[in-house]
Amino acid sequence: MSSSSITEDARSLPDDPVSVAETGIADGRAAEAVELLEACVRAQRGGLLLRLTLQKALAATGNHEAALNAARETAQLNPGAAPAAFALGEALRQADFLPVAIGEYQRALRLDPDLEAARIGLGSAWLDAGEPEKALEAWRELSAENWPGLEEKIADARAALNQPRSDARYVRHLFDQFAPDYDGRMLANLQYRAPMILRELGDLLGLGALSPHAILDLGCGTGLMGEAVRDWSSRLDGVDLSPGMIQKAREREIYDDLFVSDIVDYLAGTERRYDLILAADTLVYLGELTPIFAGVVRTLTRDGCFLFTVEKMDGDGFELGAKRRWRHSENYLRAEAHAARLQIAGFMTCTLRSEAGTPVEGFAVALRA
Description:
Elements: H1 6-12, H2 17-26, H3 30-42, H4 48-60, H5 64-77, H6 82-94, H7 98-111, H8 116-128, H9 132-138, H10 150-162, H11 168-178, H12 182-189, H13 194-204, E1 213-218, H14 224-229, E2 233-240, H15 243-252, E3 257-260, H16 263-269, E4 274-279, H17 290-299, E5 300-313, E6 318-320, E7 326-329, H18 330-339, E8 343-355, E9 358-368
Parallel strand pairs: 1-2, 1-4, 2-3, 4-5, 5-7
Antiparallel strand pairs: 5-9, 6-7, 8-9
Helix pairs in contact: 1-3, 2-3, 2-4, 3-4, 4-5, 4-6, 5-6, 6-7, 6-8, 7-8, 8-9, 9-10, 16-17
């Protein structure tokens, strides 16, 4: 290829524009490749391969929104082509639209069961969504030797299966999906009561009368817990893994600061100190509570309180329930509180919500530093 620019080639539309564009992408001139390929499309020379290369060039420029739009158009024009469905899946996963990305990878595999790249993408999307079992199933028949990086992905998925908490990717993905109608789903459909239960427990301890407090809402979601105790606060901060939930919480205009973060990481790193830390229906995504209790001890002021709800388990220890929510026993909670040198100020059984008309039993606990 001569040193003349791809833009100059675009004016005459070369016989093999895809090869010219691929060379340009490899040489770091993706923007010129986009210009060439878009000129071909305008000249009605936009076959499947050319459109797939256009998507690749757009992604190489960093314009992922345009790449996604190009992928959607290509898939619409070629509904029976597995490579088009796969490419759309890739663009959707890049944009973090995981449910629809998974659907496109699956469609690609229905069209061509031998398209191994789609199996790689499908497993990667499941892993991004915190579903390691499904990721491993997608990769089950693939040879790691043929796919650089797959061995590391498999190790990541196996590690996620063995951690004593729900995978952070799963929690973020789950609540990003729930965010648009979370309040209606929880309050109307499930009779969710955890925020009011914790407020009532706080009232029993006299926290309302002793307000205002600097309050931290762990796993704040859309802000239902914060709304329940805003009148107690001199400062109200919220932390949640889900950007979608944080956006909904921000719309309430009740928080002083909101952070997208894993709650254990936030407690380990923040320099702020709080008089009251609340976790309504949050610790159900953590099995082992030692790290969270250690972070709470680090972050609470002297005589500060930590109020939280968990789902109830009989016996000892903790277990993962059928709904992928962790349940904790009273014995375990008391032992962890003792180990963290937190005093038990309140401990009661309660009904947190309903599922299919069945009450979900739990504990509401108050610990004092």
